[in-house]
UniProtKB/TrEMBL annotation:
<dbReference type="Pfam" id="PF00107">
    <property type="entry name" value="ADH_zinc_N"/>
</dbReference>
<comment type="similarity">
    <text>Belongs to the zinc-containing alcohol dehydrogenase family.</text>
</comment>
<dbReference type="InterPro" id="IPR011032">
    <property type="entry name" value="GroES-like_sf"/>
</dbReference>
<dbReference type="InterPro" id="IPR002328">
    <property type="entry name" value="ADH_Zn_CS"/>
</dbReference>
<protein>
    <submittedName>
        <fullName>L-idonate 5-dehydrogenase</fullName>
    </submittedName>
</protein>
<dbReference type="GO" id="GO:0016491">
    <property type="term" value="F:oxidoreductase activity"/>
</dbReference>
<dbReference type="InterPro" id="IPR020843">
    <property type="entry name" value="ER"/>
</dbReference>
<dbReference type="InterPro" id="IPR013149">
    <property type="entry name" value="ADH-like_C"/>
</dbReference>
<dbReference type="GO" id="GO:0008270">
    <property type="term" value="F:zinc ion binding"/>
</dbReference>
<dbReference type="InterPro" id="IPR013154">
    <property type="entry name" value="ADH-like_N"/>
</dbReference>
<keyword id="KW-0862">Zinc</keyword>
<dbReference type="Pfam" id="PF08240">
    <property type="entry name" value="ADH_N"/>
</dbReference>
<keyword id="KW-0560">Oxidoreductase</keyword>
<keyword id="KW-0479">Metal-binding</keyword>
<dbReference type="InterPro" id="IPR036291">
    <property type="entry name" value="NAD(P)-bd_dom_sf"/>
</dbReference>
<feature type="domain" description="Enoyl reductase (ER)">
    <location>
        <begin position="25"/>
        <end position="355"/>
    </location>
</feature>
């Protein structure tokens, strides 16, 4: 009789396959089956639970492109995700199966060296692979799937008491914290946030965390202003109800990304004040009124993604920051197109729209 280690039972199809949200081109979104990945050396396998829909996901679905990145082949969407570790690859230490985590979605490509003037600002690295991005070919698949293998270096454990639903918002909160951090000191200052989509609302929360005394929120949608108020805005301005932007504001965060907003925003800033551009502006020519930038000596600063502020975001969540008022809709993975439709529709009153990525 032969002896030895018993063979492992064959895995069922349900154990080797998974569902993923894949965009194939403009207007062509599919929930399709793919092989479940295995974690390689230095990787972990995540069982994803929640994913937040971002403007870039909507852009790939609607236009087949986001900014200057265009689809060359199908792409799994999603970079705002959280879940639990399902398996560890070889050489991974300090993490364990079942641990709730989120993901830092950026991976610089190359030796990582940056000029001294931007040392440490890895968000400005010339080549960065980002979850759910078509910037490179082959593209970098995102996390809108039931499982994904992720480099252990990109894993961020969730603090005690923070669930994966809130954990999926750590990435956009990090974007907001980075924007707030572009101004050295907000303590005791008056701040205006123009544009109260999910990022704008999170900038409201971030400005409050950074010590801003008064946060004024402005938008054209009452539902967005309600969310901004819930996130800490002490004053709101409804720009469709005859209200205008305030005057002589110390710091303005422009989060709408609308070129037509730039003139009023620059005028709202105090002479010698600061405007932080958070909303993505078009990559093509667009008219904008910029005269006040010069005559009022305004400092206009860009803000792009984040460096390690995702760690600050997780600390804030662990300290009790509650982002649940921002979550207005939840959809199962199989209804991904419905979720994108709601997130893209200004009339839906949506804030952050989440996808439930796990089957249970």
């Amino acid at each position: 009789m032969k002896t030895g280690t018993p063979a492992e039972p064959a895995r069922t199809a349900a154990e080797t396959r998974m569902k993923a949200v894949v965009v194939h081109g403009a207007g062509d979104l599919r929930v399709e089956e793919r092989d479940r990945p295995e974690p390689g050396p230095g990787e972990v396998l995540l069982a994803l639970e929640w994913g937040g829909i971002c403007g870039s996901d909507i852009a790939y679905w609607k236009k087949g492109a986001s900014g200057t990145a265009s689809l060359a082949h199908p792409l799994v969407l999603g970079h705002e995700v959280a879940g639990r570790i399902a398996a560890l690859g070889t050489g991974v230490h300090g993490l364990h199966e079942g641990q709730p985590v989120t993901v830092h979605p950026a991976e610089p490509v190359g030796d990582g060296r940056l000029p001294d003037r931007i040392a440490g600002r890895t968000n400005l690295h010339p080549r960065v692979r980002y979850f759910g991005s078509a910037a490179f070919t082959p593209h970098t698949d995102g996390g809108f799937s039931e499982y994904r293998a992720v480099r252990a270096a990109q894993i961020r454990p969730l603090p005690e008491g923070v669930g994966t639903e809130q954990g999926a918002l750590a990435e956009p909160l990090a974007v907001a914290l980075h924007a707030a951090g572009r101004v050295p000191d907000l303590r005791g200052r008056t701040v205006l946030v123009n544009g109260c989509g999910p990022i704008g609302c999170l900038v409201v929360a971030a400005a409050r965390l950074r010590g801003a005394d008064t946060v004024v929120a402005a938008d054209k949608r009452a539902s967005s202003l309600d969310l901004a108020h819930a996130m800490g805005a002490g004053e709101i301005r409804d720009l469709t109800a005859g209200q205008t932007l305030p005057e002589d504001v110390d710091v303005v965060f422009e989060a709408s990304g609308a070129p037509a907003a730039l003139g009023p925003v620059l005028r709202a800033a105090a002479r010698g004040g600061t405007v932080v551009q958070v909303g993505n502006l078009p990559g093509t020519a667009a008219p904008a009124v910029l005269g006040d930038l010069v005559t009022r000596e305004i400092t206009w600063i860009g803000s792009y993604r984040f460096v390690e502020e995702i760690d600050h975001a997780l600390r804030a969540l662990g300290d009790g920051l509650d982002l649940s008022p921002l979550i207005t809709h939840r959809f199962p993975l199989d209804r991904a197109e419905d979720a994108l439709t709601v997130a893209a529709d200004p009339a839906s009153g949506s804030g952050k729209v989440l996808l439930r990525l796990s089957a249970d």
